[in-house]
Amino acid sequence: MTMRIVVCVKYVPDATGDRYFADDLTTDREAVDGLLSELDEYAVEQALQIAEAADDAEITVLTVGPEDAKDALRKALSMGADKALHVEDDALHGTDVLGTSLVLAKAVEHTGYDLVLCGMASTDGGMGVLPAILAERLGVPQMTLLSELAVQDGVVTGRRDGDSASEELRAVLPAVVSVTDQSGEARYPSFKGIMAAKKKPLESLDLSDVGIEEDQVGLENAWTTVLEATKRPARTAGTIVNDEGEGGKQLAAYLADGRFV
Amino acid sequence: MAEVLVYVDHVDGAVRKPTLELLALARRIGEPVAVFLGAGADTAAPTLAEYGATKVLAAEVPAFDAYLVAPKVDALQAAYEAVSPAAVLVPSSAEGKEIAARLAVRTGSGLITDAVDLEAGEEGSVATQSVFAAAFTTKSLVSRGTPVITVKPNSAAPEVAPAAGAVEQLAVTVADASKGTEVVSRTPRESTGRPELTEAAIVVSGGRGLNGRENFHLIESLADSVGAAVGASRAAVDAGWYPHANQVGQTGKSVSPQLYVAVGISGAIQHRAGMQTSKTIVAVNKDAEAPIFDLVDYGVVGDLFEVVPQLTEEISARKG
Ligand SMILES: Cc1cc2nc3c(=O)[nH]c(=O)nc-3n(C[C@H](O)[C@H](O)[C@H](O)COP(=O)(O)OP(=O)(O)OC[C@H]3O[C@@H](n4cnc5c(N)ncnc54)[C@H](O)[C@@H]3O)c2cc1C
């Protein structure tokens, strides 16, 4: 039987550029360049490796997001995923993690899955909780923050390097897995991959297709409200000295003044 | 006054500092009720009481260790149902965030992660967060359900505020569905004897400029001279010079100490994401153009192999 792998990816503002809030205090996704969240590339990479090791597997990349989010899907397709699913609906604007996870869960169920793969966190919101929520919503095992994983005979095993211990985990599929940036470098799309991606199926769905009501999502129905967003004042320019043989002593004196020594 | 659940982070009953910070924040919005899972509740209770816990709901079942995360969610949910709290506060560790998130789904509640401050407001508790690699500060509140909020370490000072803090057993039934992810084995991280990275008042971090694992002793000696934790950039971790557990940044630990010392670190956005909220920042880097110097309160442009040993020696001399 074909193993159905669904990789959830996010289209995010480029972290190396300036990022802003829009007037309604949602993340500004228009004034800035976007791309496939780098941390999701690790999930796509692991999906590809699992599929390569399996007899028969199919990788669907899934995103919830605006029109431009297709860029993220195309990147994943060019890396080697088989098909893409885009949940896109004007009513989604401003949806928070609880709403987004609801849409993803419905979409994952809609398309069918044995293994859901996610990155460890988005590079914009950075909450890092979506995979756990998805496991909760789908009612399947949570195998999150793995730095190593393998899938064999319908069982997923992996290592989670936690705060106080390193754990070897095991779960029977279907399951939700998230991988860290320690799981292995993601491949670059080849020229062939980029060309092939253009012919791969990219299906768009709206909320009604996945069985979600408009009042379950969107800024108005978010579970949290952002009251204000203020740019952090630039740190006041510090003192910079050139080391001319006394740099260490000068720094020690500064630290002593600050009572750190 | 309304009760506020505080999820206790501990090691065999030794309460970790972030929990004491949570108790101080909880007292701003209600009466803290501690939720203690695992062994050692009786050891922890006096400390929790000293810092304001009006009671300690305790549960110890083997499933907490045998399966990942979900059994702890079952327990926190049991506490939630027993207390009907005004808010739930959880330390912002990787596991803490996952527990909080799943509880939020189950209770139909809004979730705020990585708060750095919390205050009572007219429409509910207002949480401050530092976002986009600390380029922005936001204030938010939970608009649906009970606020479930995870709070970063070093967000408040622990406050002694003696309360009753009696231990009450919490009845927990772990659902079969919560036993999906088996913990086959667990290898505790070796203790270095240094402060915990996320909790430390001072962090000294080394980057690619160290140019090899064998030179990290320079960072460790400096750290030890001021009682600091040791951090590393991803470049240093990826090169295998220092453990990943010590990585500071977007995909490592987020730290907010009184003093952050960056040595041989350029200050990439992903590194800044994990240290930019530090109170005082100093750096040693041989490149005067390195972006880290935009953040510093004090910077030395120079060769770390000259500056750092002199710094450590001078600190030791000053201590006498
Ligand atoms: C998705 C993603 C997540 C990431 N997550 C993280 C993260 O969590 N943490 C993190 O740190 N990075 C992270 N990075 C990587 C980040 O982009 C940088 O590559 C990394 O921080 C660079 O580490 P560095 O400053 O040690 O090395 P470099 O950028 O190479 O800087 C080394 C510095 O050392 C200085 N130097 C060299 N020799 C000396 C000397 N003898 N004396 C004094 N100074 C010297 C140089 O001038 C230079 O400024 C992430 C990247 C991505 C894409």
Descriptive account of the structure:
Chain A: The electron transfer flavoprotein serves as a specific electron acceptor for other dehydrogenases. It transfers the electrons to the main respiratory chain via ETF-ubiquinone oxidoreductase (ETF dehydrogenase). Chain A: Belongs to the ETF beta-subunit/FixA family. The complex is a heterodimer of chains A (261) and B (320). With 261 residues, chain A is α/β, with parallel strands linked by helices. Chain A has a single domain (3-221), classed as Rossmann fold (3-Layer(aba) Sandwich), CATH 3.40.50. Chain A is 28% helix and 30% strand. Chain A has 7 helices and 13 strands. In chain A, the strands form 2 sheets. In chain A, strands 9-8-7-10-6-1-4-5-11 form a 9-stranded mixed beta sheet, with helices on both faces. Chain A has a two-stranded antiparallel sheet with strand order 2-3. In chain A, strand 8 and strand 9 form a beta hairpin. In chain A, helix 2 (70-79) packs across helix 5 and helix 3 crosses helix 4 (130-138). The mean pLDDT of chain A is 95. Chain B is an alpha/beta fold. In chain B, helix 6 runs parallel beside helix 9. Chain B has helices at residues 17-29, 41-50, 63-66, 70-83, 94-107, 216-225, 234-238, 269-272, 304-319, and strands spanning 3-7, 10-11, 14-15, 31-37, 55-59, 87-91, 111-119, 126-131, 136-142, 148-151, 166-169, 182-188, 202-206, 229-232, 259-263, 280-285, 298-301. Chain B is built from 9 helices and 17 strands. The termini of chain B are far apart. The model of chain B has no long low-confidence stretch (mean pLDDT 96). In chain B, the strands form 3 sheets. In chain B, strands 9-8-7-10-6-1-4-5-11 form a 9-stranded mixed beta sheet, with helices on both faces. A 5-stranded parallel beta sheet of chain B has the order 14-13-15-16-17. Chain B has a two-stranded antiparallel ribbon with strand order 2-3. Chain B folds into 2 domains: 3-179, Rossmann fold, CATH 3.40.50; 197-319, TPP-binding domain (Rossmann fold, 3-Layer(aba) Sandwich). Helix content of chain B is 28%, strand content 27%. At the A-B interface, helix 3, helix 4, strand 7, strand 8 and strand 9 of A face helix 5, strand 7, strand 8, strand 9 and strand 12 of B. Strand 12 (224-231) of chain A pairs antiparallel with strand 9 of chain B, so a sheet runs across the interface. The complex binds flavin-adenine dinucleotide (FAD). Flavin-adenine dinucleotide sits between chains B (207-209, 233-236, 247-252, 264-266, 268, 270-271, 274, 284-287, 290, 303-305) and A (38-39, 181).
